[in-house]
Amino acid sequence: MDTKDTYNTLEKPGDETLFKDRNSKFFGYAFPIASEEEAKHLLDGLKKQHHSARHWCYAWQIGTERTKHRVNDDGEPSNSAGQPIYGQIQSFDVTNVLVVVVRYFGGTKLGVGGLINAYKTSAQLALQNSVIVEKTINIDYVINFEYKDMNKVMRIIKEHNLKITKQELELSCKIYISVRKKITHKINEVFSPLYEIEIRKLDN
């Protein structure tokens, strides 16, 4: 059984970095992201900010236990930009992250080897200039119960230090909780004495 229930990501967007090679300028950026849509939105923002640049190459990775990623050379020779950027995401062992390198062409071709080095170095600088934090992998549950059981439910949540993410208190009550992966096996057990409540794992 895989007991690892932590992952590394960025606390906040990193500082802009600059790498130069033969008059070409490579601006590096690293962002924490939660979705592909967020990555697209951030890329659109950088394209507006650097509207006169030649290339906006990037790589992103999303997910904790199952990850998905994408790389984009944006007009540079195949595998000379996106893949070296993604290599740094793997090297720093981070996920839920987007790394973008914006290139202004300086008039001199760098060759594929030079490009690979420039994009790799720029991605490395962007991640070095970011604050990397460790987070726990959590599983979400919803608890359904009647008002009369509110105190009992809240007592269990407090005793086991469970994190409430949302509450819906209408005709009956729903409380959503987020539980660290390695203690999820206890969850049904701690709520089982309250036979009138229903607890259900949510599909993330």
UniProtKB/TrEMBL annotation:
The UniProt entry, under Pfam families, shows: Impact_N
* One GO CC term, this protein: cytoplasm
GO BP terms: namely: regulation of translational initiation
Q: Which residues form the Impact N-terminal domain?
A: 22-127
PANTHER family given for it?
IMPACT FAMILY MEMBER YIGZ, IMPACT-RELATED
The similarity comment for this entry is: Belongs to the IMPACT family.
Q: What is this protein called?
A: Uncharacterized protein, YigZ family
UniProt organism field: Aquimarina spongiae
Query: Which lineage is the organism of this entry classified under, starting from the top rank?
Result: Bacteria, Pseudomonadati, Bacteroidota, Flavobacteriia, Flavobacteriales
